[in-house]
Structures are given as C-alpha cells and as structure tokens.
C-alpha cells in the first residue's frame, strides 16, 4: 500500500480511523469546486455551509464540507 501524506494536526494518539475520516473530509473540502453561476473553479467555503465565488460574488448555501453533500442511504 502506498504511504499517505501526513495529516496536519493529528498525531498518532488519535488512531487510524479518525485520521482516515479527517483526511477524506479535508480532501473533499479543499478540492476545486465549480461556481453554478459563472462556471469558474473559484467557489470557496466562507463558513460552515456557506459558499461564495471569488470571481462573480455569487453566494449560496450548501453542505458543510461540499457544495452538494452526498446522501448516504
């Protein structure tokens, strides 16, 4: 298995499961997201659930870590 990147802020004391969950959330949160208004990849999270495009200024509500949260059934 390839070695994963180190996760800032979480040491060995937190355990593997917590570090894996944290890395998945960070990967989704920091990925580039497309603005539904101007189609640029400048959509950023301003606060939990609030997303704003730095190019056109479009603001919208969405999920805490992703614009459209995935539904688990």
Structure description:
The chain is an alpha+beta fold and 73 residues long. It has a domain at 33-73: N-terminal domain of TfIIb. 21% of the residues lie in helices and 16% in strands. The protein has 1 helix and 3 strands; from the N terminus they run αβββ. A 3-stranded antiparallel beta sheet has the order 1-2-3, with no helix packed on it. β2 (50-53) and β3 form a beta hairpin.
Strand-helix topology:
Blueprint: H1 16-30, E1 43-47, E2 50-53, E3 59-61
Antiparallel strand pairs: 1-2, 2-3
Structural features:
73 residues, alpha+beta, N-terminal domain of TfIIb, three-stranded antiparallel sheet, 3 strands
CATH topology of the domain at 33-73: N-terminal domain of TfIIb
β content, as a range? 15-25%
Proportion of helical residues: 10-25%
| Unreliable parts | none
Mean of pLDDT? 85
- What oligomeric state do the depicted chains represent? single chain
Strand order of the largest sheet: 1-2-3
The CATH architecture of the domain at 33-73 can be named as: Single Sheet
Structural class: alpha+beta
What is the CATH top level name of the domain at 33-73?
A: Mainly Beta
State the order of secondary-structure elements, H for helix, E for strand. Answer: HEEE
List the total number of helices.
1
Largest sheet: 3 strands, antiparallel
The beta-strand count equals 3
Please tell me what the overall shape is.
Answer: elongated
Radius of gyration: 15 Å
**How far is the first residue's CA from the last residue's CA?**
29 Å
